[in-house]
Hints:
Blueprint: E1 10-13, H1 31-34, H2 37-40, E2 43-45, E3 50-52, E4 58-61, H3 71-74, H4 87-104, H5 117-122, H6 128-145
Parallel strand pairs: 1-4
Antiparallel strand pairs: 2-3
Amino acid sequence: MRDNDAANPIVILDEIDKASSSSKYDPLGPLYSLLEQRTAEKFVDEALDMPSNGSHILYVATANSLATISKPILSRFIVLKIDAMSAAQHGTVTQSIYSRLLAQHGATALFPSKVSKDVIDALRNQSPRTIKAMLRCGLAQAAKRNPKAKKLALIPNDLIFSSTTELSAGEYDGRPFGYVH
């Protein structure tokens, strides 16, 4: 933060509901002081063993559930609930992910620029993270299904994916491989 150009950096704490609640070490422990203006002004970092003024830092946290976040931490945030995507928004998000994957893998000339309504419908109840994984696998499956085609089409049957499936070497059963990075 010392070398940053911003006087009030924004720190994003992604999915704080998944932070360990170990009795040995609470990774959210420093937030009890840092999220309070008065105590943040005189915050002492244990690693640096020196006081610093953290009162100018802006914190944004995300969570999938409020149930696992301690009440004292939760009380230090303004909670905004974001509703699930509408059908139209889901289609827009799916199209955006599809377009990005085509560009990322240099496949814009191989596949149509718009994802079909059938594929969007097949992905309707999935999260954006799962949509990305399923589309990635689906594009690979479509290419495998038509190895010599100059133009490929993604169909719902190409969207076979299970994030819990693990295959050992030599056990490939025809499903596309996926990976998370």
